[in-house]
Structure prediction request, 848 residues.
Amino acid sequence: MQLSKPRVVIVGAGFGGLSAAKALKNTDVDVVVIDKNNHHLFQPLLYQVATAALSPGDIAQPIRTVLRGNKNTQVILEEVISIDKENSVLKLSNGKLEFDYLILAPGNRHSYFGNDDWEKYAPGLKDLNDAIIMREKILRSFERAERNYKNKEEYKLNTSFVIVGGGPTGVELAGAIAEIARKTILKDYPLINAKDISIKLIDGADRLLVQYDKSLSKYTKTALEKMGVEVILNSVVQSVDENIVITNNGEFESSNIIWAAGNRASPLLDTLDTELDRSGRVLVNPDMSIEGYDNIFVIGDASFLVDANGKTVPGIAPAAIQQARYVADLIASRKSLEPRKPFKYLDKGSMATIGRAKAVAQVSKLKFKGFIAWMMWGLVHIMFLIDFRNRLKVMTEWLWYYVTFKPGASLIFHNKTTEKEKVS
Amino acid sequence: MQLSKPRVVIVGAGFGGLSAAKALKNTDVDVVVIDKNNHHLFQPLLYQVATAALSPGDIAQPIRTVLRGNKNTQVILEEVISIDKENSVLKLSNGKLEFDYLILAPGNRHSYFGNDDWEKYAPGLKDLNDAIIMREKILRSFERAERNYKNKEEYKLNTSFVIVGGGPTGVELAGAIAEIARKTILKDYPLINAKDISIKLIDGADRLLVQYDKSLSKYTKTALEKMGVEVILNSVVQSVDENIVITNNGEFESSNIIWAAGNRASPLLDTLDTELDRSGRVLVNPDMSIEGYDNIFVIGDASFLVDANGKTVPGIAPAAIQQARYVADLIASRKSLEPRKPFKYLDKGSMATIGRAKAVAQVSKLKFKGFIAWMMWGLVHIMFLIDFRNRLKVMTEWLWYYVTFKPGASLIFHNKTTEKEKVS
Prediction:
């Protein structure tokens, strides 16, 4: 690596990080992408891995492969421990790394509002490992229900699902579970009666998908209810224990409690020693830089910004990608000192899928629902997957899944791990 | 389940167990298949998952799905702890299970000749979890080599591979690693020089594939050497430690030591309290039953038999399948008391692949090698996969792999697990 060129270090290979690296491809800088995973994850479809519709390989791609064309880019598989902004150096789990420019795109994890002990009873969904664990948890509870179908209590516990959080992830998980539970997977469990399966979606607010228009929230609730999901609103979780969620609005028992409520930005940002919001996101300047450092940027859902249009930038992939390109341009054109044009988010809309042929989409004032929204959702996601060789595979998986109603990936990998789980 | 019908319990859902269940499909018995994994594994291709050519889902299928058509069959996901042959009952990790007939097909695991502490330094390859761990180990060492390419020692250690055991698995692994290391994966590691990669295949015998004809062993050695694999024979392993294998014929350092030597049948068989051979296999009667119990059978590579033709039945899938059908027929026709016709193994040949367009095959006296053997190998395995919906996917994966030389599944799932590994 010629040290004459400025070194741009990018932390995190999500949509933001990868887009930044790609935008810097043919510029006069050296790029280092560092991530603790070796793959980029197509998070919008993660819930389909968790519900055994897709395989991990269908929605993940090695970072090195994605960036293979970037001659000025080095990829490092390691964890960043802390950031020393004074001296422009990162402390890694193994060694140090200096930077001239730093783009932080570490993303966030699900959070338990300070009750981290809830995680073992109510796993969340952020990476492949989460998805595999959730999938195994679901499959194992079907196995237990089938095996103990005579034991009413066991049977009830293992045929109940409780999803906490009525945002897009919660809605998508509830819908997907309703479909696999009622249709696909049940074929393999003759002793389980579809009518016995209970799926509850709990949220503290008075409607689902609060970030969407009320009419879409209403549609989503009705659609989920038609699919057999019980939507329980105005219910704030007070505590989670093994097989039980306690809210201000009743208790809910299940051996499948899934957490889709609340995120917290990467703890790495705490080491920046700059102002964070309640969910750990960095309050960035209008140019995505941090207070007092025009060479350190935070993008994606690890940052918080009210943009030049006075709109809060949402924590979704399109926003991260726009921020990545904006910052890459600042760096490439060395706009480090002259006044910078503030970042403006171009709202390309947001969408959530509810189930087969059911989705909601919102593009600024425009609202779509049902099959049209679902077609939009499918198209957008296929286009998004364009960089993946897996695109074709994902489509064939979907087609197969559609035609046969058979889940594509009902595998439990780690009997060892899960034996332990059973004991604990 | 009507208890009037005799209950046949099958332990293990490998080729033997599944074939037995299928053969009993339309017979007047109740069948229970019990396995500690929820999936049947297509073991002959496991090494391709370990070397990131295929994804786990491509070679595994949920047992329930495979047996969905068997109306008289129940599938249980659990571990069998011990066998009480006097009272015809199995002790499970959770409960008991009575049987009228018992078919034991628990398979075997790689063994370390009593040195189980070697396993953490030299993992073996028997199930999906093994394959995922091996794949991650290989990928992580490439990452370390790339990251520390200036540190000669680190670099050398992480670009060396030592495979212990010159049987089919060892040969297949050596060949596959030579291909991914030299061609496919290297594309993603610009700082690693293909010439630096060292792959050693060690065996205690004076030739590879001892169960094959000498001419094929010779061909295999030459073919591997052409691919850059160093074949080291007459070298008995004396000890394995972290990153080093010590033999009577020199020491070999590598951060990728892979164990493909020696198997031991499932420890469950010890609880049978009947005669076992050195590698833990049950010495079965000519009808595959165990001494003194004409209702308990052991099939597949968990059993040892010199058949009616005076030939030792090999521990390969075709033999397990033939034994399964033979035993199923005994049970279905209630030949429990009248004299039974002894089992005869029909040799359909055995084959091992070395690499792209290179394989060896032997059908009784006939010997094949090179491209023809490889085509045979490919065809046979595709036909074997016929029960798998994955067949098409495997073929497309292969095609893709062939055309692009890009490994299809270079994913590291568990940063958590592997962080631990790194520490330990």
In short: Chain B has twelve helices and 25 strands. The longest helix of chain B spans residues 128-147. The CA atoms of residues 6 and 29 of chain B lie 5 Å apart.
